[in-house]
Amino acid sequence: MTTISEVRTPAPQSPLASPTDHRGSPIPTLGMIRTRIKELRKRRGLMIALVLVNIGIPSIFLVVRLLAHAFDAKSYGPAGGYDIYSNLSAGVMYVFGFIVAATLGCTAGSIDLTEGMFRHLVVTGRSRVALYLARIPAGLAIILPLVAVGFAIVCTVCVFAAPTTINYDGVNVPAGLNLQGFETWATAHPDAVLCEFDYNGPLNIPCNNGPQGGVIVKNGSLPPGVVPPSAAMIRTDAIQIAKFNYPGYKALFLYPSYSLMVRTGLWIELEAAIGFIVGLGLGSLLGQRTIAVILMLVLEVVLTPIFSRNAIPHLVNLQRSVVGLATAHLEPGGLPQPFGGGGGGGPGGPNAASLLVPESRTVAICVIVAWIVGWTVLGAWRMAKRDA
């Protein structure tokens, strides 16, 4: 007798159990990242705001200056130059770049909940952590190129539309002179050098503006009893003052150096990336955009300037934990103090970092890393634990 063994149909496996199915992996796929990019780009109002702030504001400002200088060069200075570059970089692109990047991050972190799509994403079986992490490269792929384009426009105009002379102590001086050339120029323009340049030593020459020479000349004539200076005396004093002022003159530039532009661009991009990642985590944690954006604005516009400029007793360590202070300490030399307020950073002036609450560069880097990792973990944890 032939015995037929019982044949059973194997039980169907869960799609997640298949070795070729990676939907449970916390690592986002390229398709997920592309989907997140399309999702954000569909928000036209947000995209227009990003373009206007990162590219529109500096472009409009520079175009107005170019036109004003073209029509009335005597009343309006050149559109470019070192001062325009430094003020736009540290005063506009740094602060507003963070704000719009944070707005994009808050939107990306809460868009699925506000549009009722979170449940549909969960039922696909994709890892919630992967769904969250996919938003980071997607958002950075949008905000970083916009910041780069806006900054490139600033650099281009500031280099090619820079002034041909340097304004030093209210006097227009040719740029790039060595010490000998600076002294030669000073002897050819003694009135400007003797009366306008700073000098604390004794002089043999009376000055129209005094008191450098110890005598104030009124109406172009010397007071009674004052012997007119000789040509040799004028030359000696002009060279002496030129040597005293040359270090300050040497620190001035018609336009920023290429190395400074590269370092400044990376610094602004870092600030925008921090704003997006922190905003993404905060938006995911709160589950909605409006309050998250308000909190990011308060952090950047109110809390960071206060904590960065004034050392509060017994709270200094807490102040050093603010990410805005940490990024300010990474600012390239030669730029004014961030968050407005002026002072510091200019060529020949004090370093902007010296006006901030003291913090080492190592501590600043650790604070930035802690904020990026901490808010990423909080945002991913909240998405993983949120009820679908």
Assembly type = single chain
Task: Kindly report the spatial arrangement of strands forming the biggest sheet.
Answer: 1-2
- Runs in which pLDDT lies below 50 for 5 or more consecutive residues are 209-220, 341-350
Outline, from the CA principal axes?
A: elongated
How many angstroms separate the termini? 59 Å
Which sheet architecture does the biggest sheet show? Answer: 2 strands, antiparallel
Total helical segments: 14
Percentage of residues assigned to helices: 55-70%
Work out the number of β strands.
Answer: 2
Order of helices and strands: HHHHHHEEHHHHHHHH
Describe the model.
- The chain is mainly α and 388 residues long.
- The chain has 2 domains: 24-164 and 255-311 and 366-385, no CATH class; 168-250, no CATH class.
- 60% of the residues lie in helices and 2% in strands.
- The protein has a two-stranded antiparallel ribbon.
- Strand 1 (165-168) and strand 2 (171-174) form a beta hairpin.
- Helix 2 (44-71) runs antiparallel to helix 3, helix 3 runs antiparallel to helix 11 and helix 10 (258-286) crosses helix 11.
- The longest helix has 33 residues, at 82-114.
- The radius of gyration is 30 Å and the shape is elongated.
Topology:
Blueprint: H1 30-41, H2 44-71, H3 82-114, H4 118-122, H5 128-133, H6 135-160, E1 165-168, E2 171-174, H7 179-188, H8 190-196, H9 231-250, H10 258-286, H11 290-309, H12 316-320, H13 323-329, H14 361-385
Antiparallel strand pairs: 1-2
Helix pairs in contact: 1-6, 2-3, 2-6, 3-6, 3-10, 3-11, 6-10, 7-9, 10-11, 10-14, 11-13, 13-14
